[in-house]
Amino acid sequence: MRRFCFLAAMSFTAAAFADMRITEWAYSASNGEFIEFTNVGASPISLVGWSYDDDSRLAGVVDLSAFGTVEPGESVILTEAVEADFRLAWGLPSLVKVIGGNTTNLGRNDEINLFDAGSTLVDRLTFGDQTFVGSIRTQNFSGNPGTPGVLGTNNVFGWVLSASGDSFGSVFSSFGDVGNPGVYVPEPSSLALLSISGLALARRRR
Ligand SMILES: [Ca+2]
Ligand SMILES: [Ca+2]
Ligand SMILES: [Ca+2]
In the CATH scheme, what architecture does the domain 2-205 have? Predict the structure, then answer.
């Protein structure tokens, strides 16, 4: 019995590690290119020892340890901009974690790689409107997963551009970029389902 519990705990940890996802990016933006990562799982994830790289695919290139522990549903930002400038540009509250000054930059056709503390690839997104004709070009408009099912599949054709006032919560930055850094909103239908199940729970509790 004890052994079973231990194994269950182990597999739970592994699942939690796999739940950090790339949820938004813009390779070129007036207020600085950025990548958003979100904990889409149910448990906190420590990003100490985690790293990012572009299409050179090397673990350890850009250290993400400063993100610390990321709570379920929390989104964090890696940007080339100075952290304070990026916050100001997008009106981000202090509780949104931002790592600024990234110099491993994204080009029009490039790749985002997220590695855990063991240098294992956790998520990858290969993109480029020239490489993948018909896919989005995230210049001044960020890209978002068209459905939550797109996350973690490395299929850029499933991603859609931000538009001001869209269901992803997109807004304009101070220099006119459009995106939703710092928040990840799953598709509206899943939000509706969440509130329905929340309502059902509240009713049951009564
Ligand atoms: Ca690059
Ligand atoms: Ca760039
Ligand atoms: Ca976002």
Answer: Sandwich (2.60)
